[in-house]
Design a protein that fits this description.
Elements (H helix, E strand, L loop, with lengths): L6 E2 L29 E7 L5 E7 L5 E7 L5 E7 L4 E7 L2 E7 L4 E9 L2 E8 L7 H8 L15 H24 L8 H16 L10 H4 L2 H9 L13 H14 L9 H12 L2 H15 L4 H6 L1 H7 L3 H11 L1 H6 L2 H4 L2 E4 L4 E3 H6 L5 E7 L4 H5 L1 H10 L5 E7 L4 H11 L6 E5 L4 H6 L6 E5 L5 E3 L8 H29 L1
Parallel strand pairs: 2-8, 12-13, 13-14
Antiparallel strand pairs: 1-5, 2-5, 3-4, 3-6, 6-7, 8-9, 10-11, 10-14, 12-15, 15-16
Pfam family, one: Redoxin
Organism: Chitinophaga hostae
Protein name: TlpA family protein disulfide reductase
Length: 492
């Protein structure tokens, strides 16, 4: 699969190019026009400094790179850039977003003030290279500089978000007045800021534990309703920020169904019915991508509908590849034959561990003794185990600890010995790669027939996990009752 951006070892290009080339995501048959679809980044930094940066391609797949400068502090990297792209450099926890356009030649330097270092960006194609970096420093761009907390007053939050948006736009005006190169990117950047604004305003619907039903007043939702017109922009879909705004806005549109059994189907319906053109394709793709690990069976049931409604071939191929992950994990030779070690030192194929619990709901808990978030979930997991009988729910703890003594000690300390079955997973086993761990904790929910229903299930501390388990038990009981009733009628 061709991705929209690839790190290429190109020589310095001298092509003069200044154009907004935003458009629909690249198809698999697209080829790079390297003479213009490239950007060169030149680093002038301290010697042997490690550079980290990342960006997202048109399929929301993150691409990361790390490279050292040479003995003189110089480094040159060339990227395939088919349209305007935000690249984010990192130094510790600090983010430095920068706008790069096709044909760009970008210089990166480090400045120092009051013992604080900062990256600065300059382009010979446009004056806006450092704009997003300035916005991030002063008003937040990568992250909104104001985070909505469960106890925050919504009126205050909305007021502050509007103020930040006005300040970002005022800074853009300053750059626009200084634009003497004739490559006007102000319109594009206005849309980037609008997407950031929409993301911030939608925070009540993706902030964990925020009671949006009670705390969001009518005037707040009225304003959100007016923003729908901003999210049907055919030429905006190559912007990562725009795609994130669509994702967050879909949660707002589907707010009455959040955390319920029909959340996915509602979001899918809104993706198709409320968006048009390329933005509809993005909305459908994001919905399938975001939920395929959370509600696998529901997503698969909508796959024919997605294939019929989505017009972007690249999106459809990408989702098809994700849909195969379940069979790779459970049915493939490398997944099912991956070996796990029990507390007695005996190895077991993954398939035999699952087979032993067929007929029950199975919850896989990937963890490690050194993982603080994993340990924090322990009381909630024990409560979950106490709630259901062993005939209904089987919990399988799979640790990625390298040292078995630390693993055994943690099981004892946390009181997990009788909470479920315990196994060690070697990082070299294919199962580790197929699941995609680390990071941890990671939970996988499997139904009574042995099929994965959530490749990335909610944590035990999240009430929605109980909802999912209850539904599996309820559906299975109804199915069993129907079979028994049918058998009774036949006997009669």
């Amino acid at each position: 699969m061709n991705k929209s951006f690839k790190i290429l070892l190109l020589s310095l290009l001298s092509a003069s190019f200044c154009n907004l080339t935003s458009g629909i995501p690249l198809s698999k048959n697209d080829t790079a026009r390297h003479s213009i679809d490239s950007a060169v980044i030149l680093f002038h930094l301290p010697q042997r400094e490690l550079i980290h940066f990342f960006y997202q391609d048109d399929y929301n797949t993150p691409s990361r790179a790390s490279q050292y400068t040479d003995e003189s502090g110089f480094l040159r990297i060339a990227l395939y850039v088919s349209h305007n792209l935000t690249i984010t450099f990192t130094n510790g926890m600090t983010m430095y977003p920068v706008l790069v356009i096709p044909g760009d030649s970008l210089t990166v330097r480090k400045t120092y003030q009051n013992d604080q270092s900062n990256y600065e960006f300059r382009s010979n194609k446009h004056v806006y290279a450092n704009f997003l970096n300035e916005v991030e420093r002063a008003y937040g761009f990568f992250w909104g500089s104001l985070q909505l907390s469960p106890g925050m007053n919504t009126a205050y939050y909305r007021k502050e978000v509007k103020k930040l948006n006005a300040q970002r736009l005022a800074l853009l005006k300053q750059y626009e007045r200084a634009d003497t190169l004739g490559c006007n990117l102000a319109t594009y950047l206005q849309r980037e800021l609008k997407s950031r604004y929409i993301m911030d305003l939608c925070a009540p619907y993706h902030t964990r534990d925020f009671n949006y039903q009670e705390k969001v007043p009518r005037e707040y939702t009225i304003e959100l309703d007016t923003l729908m017109n901003e999210l049907n922009c055919d030429t905006c879909v190559t912007s990562m920020r725009y795609r994130l705004a669509i994702r967050n806005y879909l949660l707002y549109l589907s707010r009455d169904s959040l955390y319920g059994n029909n959340e996915f189907s509602t979001v899918f319906r809104n993706a198709y019915s409320r968006f048009t053109g390329n933005s509809r394709d993005v909305a459908l793709f994001i919905t399938m991508q975001n939920y395929i690990e959370k509600d696998h069976s529901a997503v698969l049931s909508h796959l024919p509908d997605f294939d019929a409604k989505c017009k972007n071939a690249g999106y459809k191929n990408f989702i098809d590849s994700l849909a195969l992950r379940e069979s790779m994990l459970v049915d493939s030779t490398e997944g099912s034959n991956s070996l796990l070690t029990d507390s007695e030192g005996i190895t077991h194929p993954f398939k035999s561990i699952l087979s032993a619990h067929k007929g029950k709901v199975v919850l896989l808990d990937f963890w490690a003794s050194w993982c603080a978030p994993c340990r924090a979930e322990t009381p909630h997991m024990k409560s979950l185990v106490e709630k259901y009988s062993k005939e209904e729910l089987a919990v399988i703890f799979i640790s990625i600890d390298e040292k078995s003594d630390k693993w055994a000690a943690a099981i004892e300390q946390l009181g997990l010995k009788t909470a479920g079955n315990h196994y060690l997973l070697d990082a070299k086993q294919p199962l580790s790669r197929l699941v995609g761990i680390p990071p941890i904790p990671r939970y996988i929910l499997i139904d009574q027939a042995g099929r994965i229903v959530a490749l990335n299930a909610p944590r035990p501390s999240e009430p929605v996990l109980n909802v999912r388990i209850e539904k599996l038990l309820r559906d299975n009981a109804a199915k069993t009752a129907k079979v028994e009733q049918g058998s009774h009628l036949i006997v009669k």
